[in-house]
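User: I'll paste a sequence; please echo it back and then give the predicted structure.

Assistant: Echoing your sequence first, then the prediction.
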Amino acid sequence: MVVLCGSREERGRATAPHRTASSETLVQPIEFDRHADTYSEKINRTLSAWGQEQEFYTRCKVPLLREALDAARTQRPLRVLDVGCGIGLIHPFLAPSVDELHGTDVSQQSIAIARRSNPSVHYRAQTEDALPYPDNSFDCAYAICVLHHVSPAQWPGFISEMARVVRPDGIVLIIEHNPLNPATQWVVRSCELDEGAVLLPPWTLRNLMAEAGIAALDVRHILFTPFDRPLFRKLDRLLARVPFGAQYVVSGRNSKAGNAGRHLCQNA
């Protein structure tokens, strides 16, 4: 089995919380500002034992996200939000597929790096608990390995904010590390970028998303092997319902207009 570590694109922690739930919703920006310039280097150092670098794990998520983008398309221009985008590592793979790609993060240093790397993407720093966008602004919002860095007491608010900025029947997708994977637990305990993070199991995330009004929920498990070959990527798809991949994806449609929509992963 494979696991990965890192911040907002590739990170998690599977030990008991090192902090208690409090009124803090946002992770501290200074924490991520401190790591922004050396982010990829630190991730690759941790991942070296597993035979692949960070780009592999980022690329593995691209087909899942493109599938969600296709499900979110309407006759209007497609607007997509990356919540907790970090330095925008996945954006070069996604930007050509959408009309407007937006990213937001609490780390202003990370946003500055993302802007330099991805000039076609629209970035905003998040300075308050609420996302800096009006209601119904996007067709799809996603977060990659962000939620476990938020205080558990604030998980419902985080997900509700994602739903708020997505139009009715739009797509909300969250990727998280899987605490059921022993390798994940071992690696994230060793990852400098994961200090104080708390993993949540897939059933917890699914329930939180349902409570936020996200319907037609689908859970898929990913990253069972670290091998970059078509056969092993196919194996990942075949094992999508087995709950032991290094990460998992929960996706659904915003039902605040009463439209439950359809599953995104019917063929998984």
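The first strand starts at residue 79 and ends at 83. The radius of gyration is 17 Å.
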